[in-house]
Batch of 2 targets.
Target 1
Amino acid sequence: MAISLDRFAYGLPDPQAHEPKAIGKCACGCGEEIVEGYEYIEYDGEWFADTSCFLKFHGAEWRGAEAV
Ligand SMILES: [Zn+2]
């Protein structure tokens, strides 16, 4: 009786190898997806893909300091 090695050739299904699940989009409107398991900026229930998105949403920006 021949022993099949097929299941070793293909390997076992990896439970971690599922598709990343997008749970929403960046609140700034850039369209960036918020994917479960990754780190983003969360503020007051809104998710932001990056600091630039957070600043844009709040109308803030990096700028050189100058006397007013
Ligand atoms: Zn954004």
Note: Residues 19-61 form one domain.
Target 2
Amino acid sequence: MSADEPTSPDEAPVDTPITEAAVDDQVTTADVAETVVSDDLDVVQPVLRAEHLVGGYVPEVDILRGCDLTAADGEIVVVVGPNGAGKSTLIKAIFGLITPREGRVYLRDADITGTPANRINGLGMSYVPQVNNVFPSLTIHENLQMGAAKRRKGMDARIEEMYELFPRLRERRRNRAEGLSGGERQMLAVARALMPQPSVLLLDEPSAGLAPKAVAEVFETVKRVNDSGVTIVMIEQNARAALAIANRGYVLEGGQNRFTGRGVDLLNDPHVAELYLGGAAD
Ligand SMILES: Nc1ncnc2c1ncn2[C@@H]1O[C@H](COP(=O)(O)OP(=O)(O)O)[C@@H](O)[C@H]1O
Ligand SMILES: [Mg+2]
């Protein structure tokens, strides 16, 4: 994969407004300038940085067309955008499940571009896919053991920490994962991903398909994990609720960044609200 000197055609001025014409262009493959709605979001030492990612699943079809994402230590970073925008693909490129054709991914100081997922897991970053993220026929306890992979040393103590963080999982430790509610299952998936003690956790739509009460539980879970010191990068369809807890948010469309800012600034941005949040909040 040649990623030296990526050409960067879309270094747009940060305050370029999105015009009507440009918005129309989003449905085609035209490049649209990224709008940065918060002016002081830069970080000197990001824990995770993806720069100008280009790539996809088959040769010559670029799903990502120059995506950037930054997470500072301890942040909750939320990625929203319409179906098919490339959100899941972005996370997969960050986690080494696809190799970008252009661009770089850095985890702290390490360039991890193209590093396979199983190795990234050992470098301090975990990923919870949207589906198939627990073993249904195994017990909760066994799922957590699987999450430790080869790290047997300290495993029991780490499982104990997970039970402290999620008492509900302790209560059901001998039950099979298939018997859990949707919200509990996501809790288990998160706990499993936390077993290797990552500093960064990538979550792909953890609240998808859940009832409102379970959605709220998932957001509580995310906040609790973040409070324990883990940086979160989360894709969400529940865009308002997610942006409300986000230090940093991205609106992705057509494989490109459309809007970037603090979560609250995105929520309050009339263009973002109109285009991606179903109108202004009441
Ligand atoms: N495994 C795959 N193989 C080929 N194309 C895929 C695959 N997964 C997703 N795509 C395509 O990539 C585009 C972006 O998908 P995705 O990243 O899943 O979007 P989002 O998560 O924003 O809904 C879509 O056009 C989708 O059809
Ligand atoms: Mg997706």
Note: The domain at 42-276 is CATH 3.40.50.300 (Rossmann fold).
